[in-house]
Write a structure and sequence with these properties.
The chain is α/β, with parallel strands linked by helices. Helix content is 59%, strand content 11%.
């Protein structure tokens, strides 16, 4: 591999099993990075800030001198060792910084002194980001999509997880797509969400249909590209139709059992209280859309279910508030949207029938 990766060489590296080492400061990495990249910074956030101030006040030469002073001796050795440990396997590892300039060149030089020659990305993250955005635009425009639609709780995500050549947008957004859909772990930045979709699309076979869930543009705090949203709303639909009892089971599993487990794992003894606070605040956020009477009813049912669970350990009372929300809010909203914008439905069925149909479509049948 050459010592510099040109923009033309990036796409197969992004599509493959390349290890990308991001040598930018953690604050830069958090704002946007290549999905799966390892952040092994040349400078910490504080060091970068100090060097930046020095550059503004005293110029480049003084800033470079300060950088070499801050990152020297044992600090330098530790950072070089972190790069060596991350370069696994070395022959499939690439370095990048912000623009392919001084930081990645310094890192590359220090790695070479340690006995390992790694290439750097010409243009750095700026070029990588441009490549990923181009891929996202290409995918949004030209992918042959099949959309899995259905009422809230019908298990659309479970279908996405069960079929080949599918793109799980909610997993990439780290959000279930509803008012109650937040996980305990944070959502990605908008840039990282876009990068993740682009990267995932590189792993798909675009010669075959790509299966996606029927999503609105916003998934929690992040949003889909406008063109991808438009295509999801007009393309052919496979309609998932399941019983109310099955939908209650799905919601109970995802939003009560699963989400409580997340809170308990992250917050320990405080997990249940934090879960209760989150559910009540999520309900409060949609109170205006529910209307005063329905909001008070569901709030009372939710509080009773949580109290009943605390006293008995039973989850059955949760079905009451879930059913109220499904029948009197989500279903009515879904019916209104269907009347407003009818969809072209190519197949209807339960979960196993839909999965079989999609697998047949993937095989060209």
């Amino acid at each position: 591999m050459a010592d510099r990766i040109t923009p033309e060489q990036l796409r197969p590296l992004l599509a493959g099993d390349t290890t990308f080492i991001d040598v930018r400061a953690p604050i830069e990495f958090a704002q946007g990075h290549v999905p799966g990249a390892l952040n092994r910074p040349l400078m910490t956030d504080d060091e970068r800030h100090r060097i930046g101030l020095c550059y503004k006040q005293q110029g480049q030469k003084a800033a470079v001198a300060l950088g070499h002073k801050l990152v020297s001796g044992d600090v330098k050795s530790q950072r070089v060792q972190a790069w060596l440990d991350a370069a696994n396997p070395p022959q499939k590892t690439v370095l990048y910084c912000a623009r392919g300039g001084m930081r990645s060149s310094i890192s590359q030089g220090w790695m070479s002194e340690a006995g390992l020659d790694l290439p750097l990305v010409q243009g750095g993250y700026k070029t990588l980001r441009h490549t990923l955005i181009e891929q996202l635009q290409r995918f949004s425009e030209s992918a042959d999509l099949i959309v899995v639609a259905g009422r809230t709780g019908s298990g659309k995500t479970k279908v996405i997880e069960a079929v080949n050549n599918a793109l799980d947008l909610e997993a990439l957004a780290n959000h279930r797509g509803s008012a109650f859909g937040r996980h305990t772990s944070p959502q990605p930045s908008q840039a990282n969400f876009e990068n993740a979709i682009a990267m995932a699309s590189l792993q798909l076979d675009l010669e075959r249909p790509v299966i996606v869930e029927d999503e609105s543009r916003n998934i929690g705090s992040v949003h889909l590209a406008q063109r991808l949203t438009e295509r999801i709303k007009v393309t052919q639909v496979v309609m998932l139709e399941v019983s109310l009892e099955e939908r209650l089971d799905v919601i109970l599993d995802d939003y009560v059992i699963g989400l409580q487990a997340e809170y308990l794992q992250q917050f320990g003894d405080d997990g249940f209280e934090r879960y209760r606070d989150y559910m009540e605040s999520a309900l409060q956020r949609v109170s205006r859309r529910l209307g005063g009477v329905l909001y008070q009813q569901v709030r009372s049912e939710l509080q009773h279910a949580l109290q009943h669970q605390t006293l008995t350990g039973s989850l059955e009372a949760h079905r009451v508030w879930i059913e109220s929300l499904l029948l009197h809010y989500y279903d009515r909203m879904y019916d209104h949207q269907l009347q407003k914008a009818p969809r072209q439905v190519v197949f209807r069925g339960g979960r196993s029938e839909v999965i079989d149909f999609l697998n047949q479509r993937q095989n060209g049948n």
